[in-house]
Structure of diguanylate cyclase:
Amino acid sequence: MNSRFALLHRPLFVIMALCISVTLSLTSYLGVAKPFSSFDWIDVLGEGGMTLVTLFWLLATLFSRLKGRVTNLLFIGLLAMHLSMLLDLLDEFWTYPNSGWITTFESIPATLGMMVMSVALYHWHHEQISINDKLQQRERFYRDHSLTDFVTGLYSAAYMKQQLNREVQLSEQHAQPFSLLMFDLKKFDQLNNQYGTRHADDILRQVAECMQLNCRPTDLICRFASDRFIVFLPATPACTATVMMHHLQCSLTHTRFKTPNETQLSAYCSHVTWQEGHTGEQLIEQLCQQLAVQKLPNSVAA
Ligand SMILES: Nc1nc2c(ncn2[C@@H]2O[C@H](COP(=O)(O)OP(=O)(O)OP(=O)(O)O)[C@@H](O)[C@H]2O)c(=O)[nH]1
């Protein structure tokens, strides 16, 4: 509930107060008080409870909804039900010798109120569908433009490319080399077929964790494509990059990944170190070419 919403509904609060005051005044003006001994306390309790609950629903609606058609319909329906309950409660305390129509009338607002409420709920349902649609569109927008990979939580390829281009510019100014590693899991397709996508996704997540554990805090790991990862090693010369690549490759090979059976993985890997004049795309192209060579049937790595 939000008190700021209530400020939007000042006219509805006035209407509610007016209707309740008129009902109370009318019944006390037309009615004759019943003797205390004839009060039926069980009825008072039951009808009083319903009167309070409908009043609470009314207030909750005004404190939690914005202005609009659904709010107005809910207000009308709930107010009519509340007035019916109030009249029902009041005739526990008053009799109406010359105005029996009040007792006849008391159940009509409830019926009308319920009909209006039904219409309000129908429109509320449609309102909710359209809100959900908008939320889904927004969620898709953020997911599409997200900088992280949905499955592994690693950085996305788009983010890596952004960082790479920035780093190429910086390196050109400061002539400081950086390196990139690329890993491609071997026969991941078979794991997908053997264990199904859910378990294969789990493996990708565990691979991501394994790489994070074995990289330095300054390194940036991204999931480049399906079972392909890139590690960006800032301020790292070629010799250190080679050591890091073998270290990561060994870590992947020696880890037992949790699946229905424990699975061991191996990966093709390549590395490249920035040299003056190279663009980010060229570096990635070189990494991919090295992997393609390893995948050739006659290659040792294959
Ligand atoms: N579970 C899961 N599988 C994916 C995802 N993205 C791509 N894949 C699957 O990953 C597999 C990659 O297949 P390939 O590129 O042939 O790789 P591979 O089987 O490892 O082949 P080699 O690299 O030559 O050993 C395909 O079966 C894709 O459907 C994903 O997000 N989750």
